[in-house]
Design brief:
This protein is an alpha+beta fold and 271 residues long. The chain has helices at 6-12, 31-40, 99-117, 177-181, 187-206, 212-218; strands at residues 22-28, 48-54, 72-79, 122-124, 128-131, 134-146, 149-160, 225-230, 233-242, 248-252, 257-260, 264-268. The chain has 2 domains: 6-218, Bira Bifunctional Protein, Domain 2 (BirA Bifunctional Protein, domain 2, 2-Layer Sandwich); 225-265, SH3 type barrels. The structure holds biotinyl-5-AMP (BT5).
């Protein structure tokens, strides 16, 4: 287990903005909750909140995020697209396009995993990071709105790095980088690479470049028959692609194509 601290992180940073301000604690309830409360008090774009252990880590829709102390990367970034030193973007980001922030983070983490370990992670719509078909990480993007405008976003990233994911409940179908490689994987180098590669894509997003093509190309489920659990119930069909906002385009058996922005791919459907 490698030691993380605000000092070791600052010394190893490769990014210009993300992580320049950092709050590290060995234990927090949830880095997303702490980051959101700091954002409400004015924390700047790129503020990093990171912990060795969470007592109430969460995923989407109130689901738990569980990780043993010290073996995972558990961090959140405060992002303020309308007020970023990386690129002047006074119009900010339309909250309806906020899935782009999840795309930026998953692609950055994927590149960091490749650079530091040689492993090629797959992404699963909408927010999973997979290794060999098992879940190694997830992203939780939460928004702070000021009327119709995005005041801030908090993107939280949980990644199973140096831990035995077989100790997690079997139904998670989880793995970790160290499980896949059969060796110890230090977290600090991976964290700093992730911040750099997230920042590069975040900067392009602020400059108006679309990230959706790169994201769609990294998604593992496109072209497959899937079962999708949504607020309206289960839907089944072929995952044909994603639209510019990141909604999954599901071709139903009726031939109709339905965009779904919020949901989970429950299982690959019958062939
Ligand atoms: C996610 O949600 O995948 C987003 C997870 C984000 C976690 C980070 S950690 C830092 C920051 N602070 C927080 O409090 N959260 C963020 P979702 O798609 O809803 O998936 C949640 C599901 O993943 C759970 O219901 C479990 O089935 C599974 N799961 C929980 N812990 C896991 C782990 N360590 N590895 C793999 N799967 C896990």
């Amino acid at each position: 287990m490698d030691e993380l601290s605000a000092e070791t992180i600052r010394a190893a940073l490769r990014s210009e903005c993300l992580g320049r301000q950092v709050l590290y604690q060995d234990r927090m309830d949830s880095t997303n909750s702490t980051a959101a409360s700091l954002a409400r008090k004015g924390a700047a774009d790129g503020f990093l909140v990171i912990a060795d252990e969470q007592t109430a880590g969460r995923g989407r829709l109130g689901r738990p995020w569980v990780a043993p102390r010290g073996g995972a990367l558990l961090f959140s970034l405060v992002l303020r697209p309308h007020d970023s030193p990386l690129h002047k973007c006074p119009r900010g980001l339309d909250p309806r396009r906020a899935q782009a922030l999840t795309m930026v983070c998953s692609l950055g983490v994927r590149q960091a995993i490749l650079e530091t370990t040689g492993l090629a992670a797959q992404l699963k719509w909408p927010n999973d990071i997979l290794l060999d078909g098992r879940k190694a990480g997830g992203i939780l993007c939460e928004l702070g709105l000021d009327g119709p405008r995005l005041a801030y976003a908090v993107v939280g990233i949980g990644l199973n790095v140096d831990m035995d994911a077989r100790a997690l409940p079997a139904e998670y179908r989880a793995t970790s980088l160290s499980n896949e490689l059969g060796r110890h994987v230090p977290r600090l180098r991976l964290l700093c690479a992730a911040l750099l590669y997230i920042e590069q894509r975040y900067r392009s997003l602020l400059a108006g470049a679309p990230v959706v093509e790169e994201w769609a190309a990294a998604l593992q489920t496109i072209g497959q028959r899937v079962e999708l659990s949504t607020a309206e119930g289960m839907l089944e069909g072929i995952a044909e692609g994603v639209d510019a906002d990141g909604a999954l385009l599901l071709r139903l058996d009726s031939g109709q194509v339905r965009p779904v922005l919020v949901g989970d791919i429950a299982a690959p459907g019958p062939a």
